[in-house]
Every structure is written in C-alpha cells, then in structure tokens.
Amino acid sequence: MSHTATHEDHSAEVKKEVTKVTIILSVLTIIELILGFYMMGIEAAGTRLLIKGTIVILMLAKAFYIVAYFMHLKHEVKNLIMTVCVPLCIFFWFITAFLIDGNSFRNLRNTYDPHFKEQSTIKVEAKEAKHEEKEAKESKEEKKEGLKLDAPRTTD
Amino acid sequence: MSTTTTATTTKLWGGGKSPFDVEYGKLMMWYFLMSDALTFGAFLISYGTIRFSTNGWPDPNKVFKSYPFASEGVNAPLVFVSIMTFILIVSSVTMVLAVQAGKEMKKKAVAINLILTIIGGIAFLSCQAWEWNHLHSEGAWWGMNPFLNADGSASSTNFTNYFFTITGFHGFHVLSGVVINIIMLIMTLTDQFEKRGHYLMIEKAGLYWHFVDLVWVFVFTCFYLI
Predict the structure, then answer these.
(1) Chain B: closest CA distance from residue A39 (Å)
(2) Based on the number of CB atoms within 10 Å of its own CB, is B220 exposed (0-12), middle (13-18) or buried (19 or more)?
(3) Do A144 and B97 touch (CB under 8 A)?
(4) Which CATH number characterizes residue B109's domain?
(5) Considering only CB atoms, which chain A residues are within 8 Å of B139?
(6) Has residue B160 been placed in a domain?
(7) Rounded distance, CA B42 to CA B32, Å?
(8) ipTM score here?
(9) What confidence tens digit (pLDDT) does each residue in B52-83 have?
(10) pLDDT band per the 50, 70, 90 thresholds, residue B208
C-alpha cells in the first residue's frame, strides 16, 4: 500500500533531519570551544567583548536548533508556536533592564563608595593563593581569615 | 497529507478540537517548560546582574581546569565541561530517536534508545558529581570562595553561590529527567503503551529531556565560556 511507503519515507526524512541537526549542534559547540580557547590568550577588553558576543549568538543558534527540531516546535501549528514563543518575549526586557541596572549599580558604587572601589584594586598575592589551594582542605577557616586580614595590611 | 493540514488550519478555531492541534498533556508540558524557562532565566539574569555590578570576577579557565584521574597541577580548561556538553547532546539525540521510534510503534527501538538516553543522563550526573566534589575539595562551596578575581583582587562568594545554585538546580532537573525516562522505560517494557495504542507519553518525556539539554546550553555558556 502507498500508506506504508510514505510512512517509511517520512521515517527516513526524520532520521536525515536529526543527523543534520546533530552535526550543526556539534559544529556550533566546537566553534564555541575554539573561541573559548582563543579568548584565553587575549587581554584587550574590546576583543574579549566581541568574542563573548559571538559566543552568545552561537548559543542562541544552538537553542533555536534544539527547540525547533529536537523539540519539534517548527513542525507544530502556528498557534502553538505563538502561544509558547510570544510570552517568552519578556526576556528582551528582562535581560536588558537587569543588566543595565547591574551596570549602573557598579558605576554608582565606584563613584560614591570609596571602600568598594579600593577593594577591587587591592591584589592578593598570587603566591599566597597557590599556597592556599594546596592547604585548602586543612585550613579552610584560617585561610578565609588570612585573606581578610591581609587585604587592609597591604594598604597601610 | 498536505490537504488535511490546510483543511484543519482553517477550522482550528472552529471548536470541537484543540486549536493547537496537540493533545492536552503535550500542550501543558509546553506551558510547564515555558514557566521553567522563566525560572532558569531569572536565575541566570540574577547572576548576570550581580556580575555586571561587580568590578572583578574569577576567570572560569583558572577555576574549572581539572578532570578525573588528572595529576595535581593539571591545567586543562574547558576539556571536562566540553565532554559533559557532548554527553548531553548525544543523549538528546537518542531521545529524538526514541520519540520517532514511538511514533512508528517500534517497541524495541524505543526501549534501546531510552536506555541509551538514561545512560547519558547518569553519565552527565556522574561528571557533575565529580566536579562538585573536586571544587569542594579545593575549598569552594556555598559561602566559601577560594578563587581570586581574574585581576588578582579578592573575590566575593557570589561566584560560588551562583555556580552551585544554578548548576545544582540544573542537575536536579537532569536527575528528575532520568527518573522520568526510567519510568517511561518500565512502561514501554511492560507493554503499557502498546495497550494504549500510542507512545505519546514518550513525546512528553522527550520534551522535558530536550529542555534540560537546552538549559545546559545556557548554563555552559554563562559559567564556563564567558
């Protein structure tokens, strides 16, 4: 019967799509990882920000492929797509508003809270940090105290 | 096939059937996932807000740099977490195959793919358990942060608090996903879906499992890459 033939056609089609999406997801992940490794050697803040932006775009692309193909949303009727996606548009406001708020809070503190600003410029000695890692298990409490005591001492 | 779809789209709001053209349980699963997405979104945005309001932040490449059975001073950033990511992607693929096999009423293929998905989920959880244990042995936990900021200044406990809360919440989702998949496997093997005449339940479990993978895409990017 023709019914079984179309059924098998459809099955092969789905398998093909799954393979395609798997490859796309793997490639996107590998690109993300390459960018991550590449970013380790870069100091310039602007370039780092650009790479981070690229990683976020790749992340959104991965999310699209998972939702559209693995979760099958692309093949559902338009009504279902709309009822799921439209409420999630709140994220546009959510992310923008809160990140701007965080940034503004940092600027305010750096301007009006000298202690906050000073804290972020004091460097804890790297040697001490390494030493801590080794003895972290034995002297968790001691080390925390040490960090707090050491910080003001260096400013004097 | 195409004629029936065009006929149904014009009558979707005509009453007598779901205008979303899916059964009740699947629609409700979508709404649950939508609300869960808002929960995770709120967590991650809170993390972002705190990070934006702080001058320094630890470098993830210096924090997450070890893997199981590695020697003491190993420096291999991103390696272990990329393995975890691939485990989750692969388990998502086997779940798609299980759903598809269910649509074709192939019981054996459903069972095999579900078992592979469960193995993937357990492997991911084991990886996370190792990582948590490793970080804890370095002195990191809720309220304790042994790591310094990237610029060498003292870091606050926000870093570890957010890391353990969000990966823990995600890990709990993975755990419940594995439990759901085990229940689906038992129901498949005891022929419950065969008796019902459809494997629609697998599709709902599949949606949940893909969502867990989806959340990991965001958690992975926010904590390990950026």
Answers:
(1) 9
(2) buried
(3) no
(4) 1.20.120.80
(5) 132-133, 136-137, 140, 143
(6) yes
(7) 15
(8) 0.89
(9) 999 989 999 889 988 898 877 788 888 999 99
(10) very high
Query: Kindly report the CA angle at B70 between B66 and B75, in degrees rounded to 5?
Result: 45
Q: What is the pLDDT of residue A6?
A: 61
Q: Is A42 within 8 Å of A54 (Cβ atoms)?
A: no
Determine the structural domain holding residue B70 and report its residue range.
23-225
Q: How many domains does chain B have?
A: 1
Which residues, listed in sequence order, are joined to residue B154 by a DSSP beta bridge?
Answer: B148
d(CA A49, CA B219): 18
Q: Say yes or no to pLDDT of A151 above 60.
A: no
What integer pLDDT is reported at residue B209 of this predicted model?
97
Instruction: Measure the N-to-C terminal CA separation of chain B; round to a whole number of Å.
Output: 46
Q: Domain ranges in chain A? A: 1-85
Q: Residue A143: pLDDT band by 50, 70, 90 thresholds? A: very low
B93·A55 Cβ contact <8 A:
no
Contact check, Cβ <8 Å, A102/B49: yes
| Dihedral (CA of B148, B150, B152, B157) sign | negative
